[in-house]
Specification:
There is one protein chain. With about 425 residues, this protein is mainly α. The protein has one domain. The chain is built from 14 helices and six strands. The strands form three sheets. Strands 1-6 form a two-stranded antiparallel sheet. A hairpin with a 2-residue loop joins strand 4 and strand 5. Helix 4 crosses helix 11.
Length: about 425
């Protein structure tokens, strides 16, 4: 089981959120948390739209869960945030303020994307670093979340492979309104950029192959830590290959190397299995390239998949933002430079390295901390090509990993 880091340092020093002596409340609370993880990880796109703005069940459950945690902290009348959580949160404040001021004074062309920006830069750091991270200090809370997450990642991969195979045979998409797709987006899967010749990218319940790949790649080191059955690990990895995305394939290679170097024991058997898996993935890639009428040169496309134009920002760097906000494009660093200028980029970089600061400022090198750090590192790598920064649920996963790091829990049998 897991062990908290000790000391009277968190709001949980008054007891876990759902104390066993509270009878039915513990069952209802645990059930609510399980639903939150299910809708965040397994069914992240389920929901409705308010105007043009998606309201997903996952984000709704997450917000209400955070509110409930705070309420339970307030009931005893003693709330003390851990200094470590505050340290994790502070680097995010400059960019949150800067981006908000930029939108306020320079303007915006998209209210919906502006709300998304506010959520991922301002709301999520508060929820995950100031609420969730202290809540994770309690071993029972953390174990419940990790055990549910492990099952949800596996089920998302299974469902994704099923839908991939079903489309390949029938050329029909599978949608479950309100659950696997937003109610307002019915019959939209085939209209999105998910086709690769005769195939459709594996999208699972994420409705987009790149969003699925980026999200699951972040969770992959953690999942491989939690899931001891190797065949399940490789099934999840296979689902990432089936997204038929160069970004996903690049990210998977980076994650495999990082896990081999930093996470796994350097036993000959482990190295052989990893190399065999990478060779098998490469064979799959070559097979799909041939089937799609592509060759290996497509992997090193000089146009960067149509993103080469995004590099032009380097020819005209501005210190401050001067254009109205109009979203964040695929190449995250270039888009931040273009949208918020050099000063905004520096604040952005400060916020994004918060998880690394958390990993570097603790002597604890528990498997959980290492896995969460590798997940964040994987996102840094794929964001060079396609960060999906504003898209649900990518940054929720990033800040979730940051919460694990700043919570500093150690563990023996996580998520069991």
């Amino acid at each position: 089981m897991m062990h908290s880091s000790g000391g009277d340092i968190s709001p949980n020093s008054t007891g876990p959120l759902f104390h066993p002596k509270r009878g039915k409340l513990i069952f209802l609370g645990r059930f609510w948390i399980v639903l939150t993880v299910i809708f965040m990880v397994l069914l992240p796109k389920g929901g409705i739209k308010v105007g043009s703005i998606p309201l997903t069940w996952g984000y709704l459950f997450l917000s209400l869960s955070a509110a409930l945690i705070v309420i339970f902290w307030l009931l005893p009348g003693k709330v003390r945030l851990p200094a470590r959580s505050l340290l994790g949160y502070l680097p995010t404040v400059p960019f949150a303020l800067f981006s908000s001021v930029s939108v306020l004074f320079v303007g915006t062309n998209s209210p919906g994307l502006t709300i998304a920006l506010f959520v991922v830069t301002t709301v999520f750091p508060v929820i995950f670093l100031l609420v969730v991270a202290p809540w994770f200090q309690d071993a029972g809370n953390l174990d419940l979340v990790l055990a549910t997450l492990r099952r949800c990642v596996f089920l998302a991969a299974v469902y994704g492979i099923f839908v991939f195979g079903f489309f390949t045979v029938t050329k029909k998409a599978v949608e479950v309104p309100y659950l696997t797709v937003n109610a307002a987006d019915q019959n939209s899967l085939l209209k999105k950029d998910n086709r690769r010749g005769e195939f459709q990218k594996l999208v699972s319940t994420y409705n987009n192959g790149n969003i699925y790949a980026v999200s699951i790649l972040m969770l992959l080191p953690l999942y491989c830590l939690l899931e001891k059955r190797v065949w399940r690990q490789w099934l999840v990895k296979a689902s990432i290959v089936l997204t038929l995305s160069r970004t996903a394939w690049f990210g998977l290679f980076i994650c495999e190397v990082l896990m081999l170097v930093f996470q796994q024991r350097k036993r000959p058997k482990t190295i052989v299995f990893t190399m065999f898996g990478m060779i098998f993935a490469a064979v799959l890639v070559v097979f799909f390239l041939n089937t799609m009428g592509r060759d290996v040169s497509w992997l090193a496309d000089s146009s960067l998949g149509g993103r080469q134009g995004q590099l032009s920002v380097l020819d005209d760097l501005r210190f401050l933002p001067y254009l109205p906000f109009d979203g964040i494009t695929e190449m995250l660093p270039m888009s931040i430079l273009q949208t918020f200028g050099v000063l905004g980029f520096l604040f952005f970089a400060m916020a994004m390295v918060s998880p690394l600061l958390g990993a570097l400022t603790t002597k604890d090198r528990s498997p959980l901390l290492v896995s969460a750090t590798l997940g964040c590192a994987g996102y840094y790598a794929v964001s060079l090509s396609d960060g999906a920064f504003l898209l649900i649920p990518v940054m929720a996963f990033f800040w979730f990993l940051a919460a694990l790091i700043w919570a500093r829990p150690s563990m023996e049998n996580p998520g069991s």
